User: Fold this.
Amino acid sequence: MTDQQTATEAPGSEPTRARLTGAVIIGAITEGSPAVITILAIFAALVVGGVLIVVTDPNVLRAWDSFGYAPGAALAATWQSVASAYSALFEGSVFSPATIGAAFHGGSIGAIFYPLSQTVFEATPLILTGLAVAIAFRAGLFNIGGTSQFIGGAIVAAWLGFGVSMPPVIHVIACVLGGAAGGAIVGWVTGELKARTGAHEVIITIMLNYVMIYLLYFLLSTPSALQAPHQYNQIAPPIQPDAQLPHVGGPPPQASVGFLIAIAAAVAVAWLLSRSTLGFQFRTVGANPSAARSAGMKVERAWVLVLLIAGALAGLAGAVIIMSGSSPPPPLGTSTYGTYGFDGITVALLGRAKPMGVVLAGLLFGAIDAGGTIVATYTTVPVDIVQVLEGLIVLFVAAPPLIRAIFRLRGASGSGMEAVAKGWNG
Assistant:
């Protein structure tokens, strides 16, 4: 019985389930679930999120204390709390009707697109780090090193941005390519260690995350390295103006060219996986390394190459963050890498490790992040609800049987994440 089989039956014996392995999990992630399940999972997450909004709103809880003699007031307060939170989420990530009305009376037209530009800005690094995880999934690898690869790209892009003088257009291109190279080097180290020693990529990438984090701390604490002159904080100098990514369509709040880079990267990864010989090798190695080796493919070489490409994608995310945003962009600091590396795992899971799915998942989470700031600013809902909502979406997407039971959908044979659920007792 192979790793990809979920059950086999022998005459006179009970059906047996496959042993749950990394190959089974990755196969379940890439196979995914029907689109209707994903849509219903997002809807279920919004419903549960609404319940959490209600129980964390002190005004609603006080209104429910008087439910016995004023039920209408309690229900109205509940609706007002949920509606105001989700309206603020929408207005902070898509558009606000107030800005449209203001534009017809002499207001700024650019203000209409500001929420969308924020969504795109938040989504750009998520798409790139999500692609870094997704392409590794396709080769049968768990790339948990998005953080280290992001930092590698950010370090190189920041140094080229403030420490090297070049003509404007060349300077931007050099910083982008340098960021990709910085992340690729970190990814290449992971691939080489796995190929030459057989060490598991999860262990290597987790350890490299710490290595790169503390390397960043050291460089930002060393005046002769990345620390800004006459600065006691761990912060790098701001990059030069001619190294900043231009905005698309004009001045802020329009999105930067970084989003176009992310879309181009998604298209390139889609072509690589579906149209190229190298992508076929990646997919074959991911499906069955032993069969790929028997067919004459160099499995170790595929591991090195796919992790190098994954590192380049995550490094691009670091470069984009360093080179875009406000004018000038915030300089490289100890918190620049944030949670982008681990958020990329979530985006890749929700996008089923498919490039276009990663783009849509990145935009969804970018919208939630962008709108979450408005929710926390203009409502009584705590900002932590935004992270909880993202977690609920992933939880429900990863549990198709639960969604089928909630919405009373017809059952289906185990596939995708359902196969994983059936394999835990293998």
Summary: Residues 118-371 form a domain with the ABC transporter involved in vitamin B12 uptake, BtuC fold (CATH 1.10.3470). The first strand starts at residue 7 and ends at 8.
